[in-house]
Amino acid sequence: MSLDLASLTFLLVEDSAYMRTILRTMLQGFGARRIVEAEDGASGLEAMDRANPDILILDWVMPILDGADMVRMIRSPNNPFAYIPIIMVTAHTERSRIVEARRLGVHELLSKPISAKALYQRVSSVILHPRDFIKTATYFGPAPREIRNRQKIWQGGPGQPQQQGGEGDGNLTAIG
């Protein structure tokens, strides 16, 4: 199945010009035509206001304002972009980062080095399988989804949803 990405606007926030080129070229290969780029989280926030993106793809580690800080700012119920699908790109795929990405409200995690197939899968996931958002005392973001092996990673306090996820299965797609 091929998605029509021509009508969507993507915002790429990545400090490496080389990595932005790779991501942009892959997205264009998938049919995306509206791609806005920023080199750090601060300029990414400014670009969001100008571009009104449908999907945000951002790097975790960047100068000035990193990806995690940018997500924290976006995932505020009062932010006009609070519900935007976020795909986080990172070379740091240790378990603690995956858990942190989930707690931040990231939809998908994409590990470097990036393949076209992996990027397409993440983009397809946020388009074809949108998730409701939930708000608790300590979390605002996409509702968790069920994971194949159902091992508990963390559990919220009273009134918070129980988060479940797999560990050690190499599947970084299902973080939330």
From TrEMBL:
Kindly give the InterPro entries that the UniProt entry links to this protein: Bact_response_regulator, CheY-like_superfamily, Sig_transdc_resp-reg_receiver
Q: Which SUPFAM superfamilies match?
A: CheY-like (SSF52172)
Q: State one Pfam family annotation.
A: Response_reg
Residues of the Response regulatory domain: 9-127
On this chain, the residues bearing 4-aspartylphosphate are: D59
Q: Which keywords accompany this UniProt record?
A: Phosphoprotein, Transcription, Transcription regulation
Q: Which GO terms describe its biological process?
A: phosphorelay signal transduction system
Region annotation (Disordered) maps to 153-176
- Name-wise, this protein is Chemotaxis protein CheY
